[in-house]
Amino acid sequence: MVRTVRRALRSVFLRLREPDPDDPIPLPRYGPRPWFVTVAAMTALAVVAAGVWYVFFRPPTCGHGVDRIGGECIGVTDGAVHFDPSMKKVDEAIRKENKRVTGLKGGYVTVAFLGALSTTKEHDLTGGRVTREIEGAHIAQMRANRGAADGDKPGIKLVLANEGADQSHWKKVVGRLERMRDAEHLVAVVGMGISTRQTIESARELSAKKIGMVGDVVTGDGFDSAGAALGPPGTGGATRIDGLTRVAVPVRRQVEVLAGYLKPRIKSAVMVVDRKSDDLYSKSLERDFHDLFKDAIKTGGRLPESFSADSPAQPGLPNVFAAVASNLNLCGGDPPDVVLYAGRTIFLPRLLQDFEKCEKHPITVVTGSDAEGIADFPGDAPATVVYTPLTDPDLVAGDSSDPQQQKAFATFLTEAERYYEPFDRSQLRDAWEMMAHDAFLTAAQAVHLARGGEIPSSADVLNFLYNLHETNYVQGAAGRIEMDPDGDPHHPTINVVELRHDGTRKLLYPARGKASSRS
């Protein structure tokens, strides 16, 4: 590149100094003016600098708008880039629908799905469920663009925004989404990742730009418009995050229902806690278990057990869990009635392996909605897991007390198979696909209603999210969705389910809660 520029400039200088006698209009015989030499030199330096930057310093890319950082593809794509090989089919389907939508008359808007859309050996808190999340969002996109969200105008384009496995690149990606508000008419963000500090910081940034959000599986206490997620309860230090809503039931409400069912049936409990500081789902469980099971914990008389990990493959974790199981004294003469597990489900199967070694007493593990990620137990652990699912396809389909919801769920299944051929009903168990579907459908309904089918602004959509109740409720796959003033689900159905080691599930207690508690 440098040689090419040098040759070009040299030929110009030679012609200026020694004009060609065969030229029809020979150049005058005088040297180049100083300004010309300066401009030429600066141009040459700029070309050289650009070449050096491009070759040596420009970040490698995975495709348009997506950089390769530390082995991960980080950025925003319309489906052209695959953040994980398992996402290829759904990416292609999204891109096809996006192409159709952008060609429609009357215009379109963009909704982004934001989250940790890739995994690494060191960081995997999603347990391989992200692809099903994206499938759920795409199915909702297809349904919304065909009238399932109170209209089909304007059309909605779906883009995927990956913050990285540990969400550490959130600022770079959120900045890109903020620029898309004007450049590509982005009006809402869904998904939002999991209950971590990075998620709440992302929400604050998006709120400042008047971009509304609908979380799908974000359950940590305070991950709503009240903005109390990072402050301890009662401190009064919360800063409202306008536009942050969600379709998932907060941890506090889950634990309230668990406590209401279990406390009359147990006497003693002990906690196992994930100490990872930025996992606010686990922190919420720890705090709420301590508050609502304090008498049983006191009777249990044992210190809480703890661990900290980013991945089930983390070296040393098996030794830690072996120590935890030993300290719980489950094989002794006086084990606790329940183990209160305040951690992510991806670590629980490994802990249950150590519970296998005790055959004297059945073990009951109590935890939150993330337990939906367990298909069955490893081996023959003498244990059951009691938890509150975000949703359960069998319970929804079999609830004869709500025929409207049964019909809505049946319609969801039929249209999912129609609009996305690889859809697999058996993959609905862990709830992430249904929750992502419902989060996107909620945003889509706000898009369609905010301006009566005309193109809304992001502020229009943000404001209308709080009107989605009563006659404007959203009929989701998992149930009826209504937003309360803090952006939490109003009147959610919260079931208590028992998961046995053979993979069978039993409904222990159904309950309907009022507006979610704040913490």
Class per helix and strand makeup: alpha/beta
β-strand amount: 15-25%
CATH top level assignment of the largest domain: Alpha Beta
Q: Can you give the helix content as a percent range? A: 25-40%
What's the story with the biggest beta sheet?
8 strands, mixed
Protein name: ABC transporter substrate-binding protein
InterPro entries: Peripla_BP_I
Transmembrane segments: 35-56
Keywords: Membrane, Transmembrane, Transmembrane helix
Provide an overview of this structure.
Helix content is 38%, strand content 16%. With 519 residues, the chain is α/β, with parallel strands linked by helices. It folds into 3 domains: 2-58; 66-248 and 426-488, Response regulator (Rossmann fold, 3-Layer(aba) Sandwich), CATH 3.40.50.2300; 252-387 and 496-512, Response regulator (Rossmann fold). It has an 8-stranded mixed sheet, sandwiched between helices. It has a 7-stranded mixed sheet with strand order 10-9-11-12-13-16-17. Strand 11, helix 11 and strand 12 (363-366) form a beta-alpha-beta unit. The protein is globular.
Summarize the structure.
This is ABC transporter substrate-binding protein. With 519 residues, the protein is α/β, with parallel strands linked by helices.
Q: Any descriptors?
A:
Rossmann fold, globular, 8-stranded mixed beta sheet, 7-stranded mixed beta sheet, 519 residues, 38% helix
